[in-house]
Amino acid sequence: MPHAIESFLASQTFAVAGASTRRHKYGNKVFRALLDAGRQVFPLNPISEEIEGHKAYPRITDLPVVPESLSIITPPEVTRQVVADAVAAGVKNIWMQPGAEDDIASQLARDAGINVIDDGSCVLVLLARE
């Protein structure tokens, strides 16, 4: 397993940008997979108040703690704002899930010294192996 992924998964706190209330959606599956793996995880969703029984937060800056790792499942144009918020908050690891990748956001995060995974790999596949 590459070092970037190990660092992401070794974190104590996580957030999922694009977490969804709809169980068939990828954002819900990633959120549930992290919960099922025993992680402390916060859902980020600007329109839902609760996801899977957990309080949802509109933006990373609204969270009670700064998550060490952030999984992003948003359209690329939204990813840019999510990453800008993550950089400002001090997030250490960002994993852009397939379809969320944005070159500008990736460069912004790397320039800030953040560990970035944006190679098309999927957190669900890795969590299934743990």
UniProtKB/TrEMBL annotation:
Organism, scientific name: Rhodopirellula maiorica SM1
PANTHER family on file: COA-BINDING DOMAIN-CONTAINING PROTEIN, CYTOPLASMIC PROTEIN-RELATED
InterPro entries named in the record: CoA-bd, NAD(P)-bd_dom_sf
Top-level division of the source organism's lineage: Bacteria
Segments forming domain CoA-binding: 8-100
SUPFAM superfamilies xref list: NAD(P)-binding Rossmann-fold domains
Record's protein name: CoA-binding domain-containing protein
Family annotation (Gene3D superfamilies): NAD(P)-binding Rossmann-like Domain
